[in-house]
Amino acid sequence: MDRVRDPHPDETRGPVEFRQLSYFIAVAETGSISAASRRVHVAQPALTRQVRLLEEDLGTRLLERHARGVSLTVAGQALFEEAVQLLDRRTQIRTRLTSLGQGLIGKVSLGVTVTHLWVPEVANLLRRYRDRYPRVAFEVFPLLSGPQLERLREGSLDAGILYLDSADQPGLETRLLQHDHLMLAVPEASPWASAPPNCLSVLKEADFVWGFRSVSPVYYDRVMAHFQRLGFEPRVVQYGADNITILSMVAAGLGIAIVPSASSAHPMPGIRFLHLEELAACDMPLWLAWRSSNDAPALHNLIGLVEEVFG
Amino acid sequence: MDRVRDPHPDETRGPVEFRQLSYFIAVAETGSISAASRRVHVAQPALTRQVRLLEEDLGTRLLERHARGVSLTVAGQALFEEAVQLLDRRTQIRTRLTSLGQGLIGKVSLGVTVTHLWVPEVANLLRRYRDRYPRVAFEVFPLLSGPQLERLREGSLDAGILYLDSADQPGLETRLLQHDHLMLAVPEASPWASAPPNCLSVLKEADFVWGFRSVSPVYYDRVMAHFQRLGFEPRVVQYGADNITILSMVAAGLGIAIVPSASSAHPMPGIRFLHLEELAACDMPLWLAWRSSNDAPALHNLIGLVEEVFG
DNA sequence: CTCTATCCATATCAATCCGGCATGTCAGCA
DNA sequence: TGCTGACATGCCGGATTGATATGGATAGAG
What we know:
Two copies of one chain form a homodimer. Chain A is of the alpha/beta class and 311 residues long. Chain A has three domains: 18-101, Arc Repressor Mutant, subunit A (Orthogonal Bundle); 106-179 and 285-309, D-Maltodextrin-Binding Protein, domain 2; 182-282, 3-Layer(aba) Sandwich (D-Maltodextrin-Binding Protein, domain 2). Helices cover 42% and strands 22% of the residues of chain A. In chain A, the strands form four sheets. A five-stranded mixed beta sheet of chain A has the order 4-3-5-12-6, with helices on both faces. A three-stranded antiparallel beta sheet of chain A has the order 10-7-11, with helices on one face. In chain A, strand 3, helix 5 (120-132) and strand 4 form a beta-alpha-beta unit. In chain A, helix 1 (18-30) packs across helix 2 (33-40) and helix 1 (18-30) crosses helix 4. The two termini of chain A are 60 Å apart. The model of chain A is unreliable at 1-13 (pLDDT under 50). Chain B binds a DNA duplex (30 and 30 nucleotides) through helix 2 and helix 3.
């Protein structure tokens, strides 16, 4: 296998290097090889040679050599304009990629359960990310855990703040954010508000507002498993689509509800959040998750900020 | 004067060479450094190093290295698209400049006196140039000698076929095309047509159609100088703006006219061209002229074709 | 489970490329 | 006619690039 002349007409044959173009621009702008050599801090013979190489590669004279400097031929003028554009383009690409590599530009989408949008740490995270990386297109989607997981897997979501049934998700990386637990939400006007129950069994006959399993299976199953362990079965009188709906029903006095502690992050009119040992014992870990194959620096900056915000 | 680190932030600092981009494209398209090395006919370690250099220059990882090939990071994908465009651009520039250098593309404007558009050699020249260099924007302007000279000097005309009072024009190059002389144009219906005059003195009492000096001083002065030498002064009864107008007046029977021999190149209805020794003795050299500083290959191709057409 | 094939990374050497220095040549100018 | 400024040429040293040899890690086959 000897080294023959490349038989197939590769599109990238022949020099015309950036350096030559840059030199040529200097020559064109100064109108003199010597002056250009001073400008680019390169000896004059080097420029003479590079320009000549350029002329040979293109098969065209680019300069008219006079006793006092040089002038451009028509081909030289054409090349000059093109060369300026080409070099500009290169620096654009360099800065663009450098920024991209540092996560200063790009795109990140983050899913957050509506409930946790109100948690101070999360709100803090969003605000600080926007402040620190203003040029990144940062999209926040209010989504339940299930859809988040789906969209993370299919790649339409870069990261998610959600409940998981396990820290070990194939194809995903996870990081524990905090431990939620459960609380009791009661109407402010109800007897429970003035006389808080101290154990779950007291609530045997209470009217409960409950969620659908299909909406958020991970959360639902976890809660139900806990209740089975406790041997408690709530008497459900009303169902609500999501946590916000459920809470509004509680506020309306339709019943009481079991909700994630995150819900109490901001006060809601007409609702009192009550602490119960048996509910607080239900550990509800909140996770950050992202595709392990996703290496976008903008995403990892977000993850880094999570480290800052959630110690 | 020692070699310190370049203190001023030159815009063309840092590599990112065409070669590296070309290698990177091969890697991206094959999804493997080894496969790419076979495609570009370069050893694998060389590619490994060039890609790494690219990554260092840009400060960004471009590839994810797996046991079986590599995959692009988001930055890598961005660079891939940019690199393809940049390399395409370079080859475009190369072909464009090569073509330009060979005069296969570009722009040429040629002035021709209306009279000489009908001369077979000139028509031939125009046709052959268009045939041989179809991609050149070739513009032919019907202009008298005076305006041609003006526009040649100011640069809005690349070449001209015209009369000159001297072959020696500052800033212009000239080439003799052919020797015109003068002829007599008479109405076909006139007595002169059936009984041609054999000397100028016979025409002493004839009605002449004449041109304005201001329209084409070079031509006019030359003719007048000749007539002064002959001691002949025509009796002018009518003036015409240009040669075509004059000839149409002759055809209409308004008088007879002295015209360049080139006018007889194509027959005109109602006109008879007559040869007279005294008129043929007036040498009217026809020139090709162009700016000596004009190095456009497309122009010199035209000049070369002139050499072919006019021996 | 081990063995092998494949692919990427590293080290070293040789060739080539590029820039610097010294020098030559030519045109314009006093 | 000598002088100056500008481009061209020859030669040398240093840097860059590619080739060869080799190591390490992983996926697939038996």
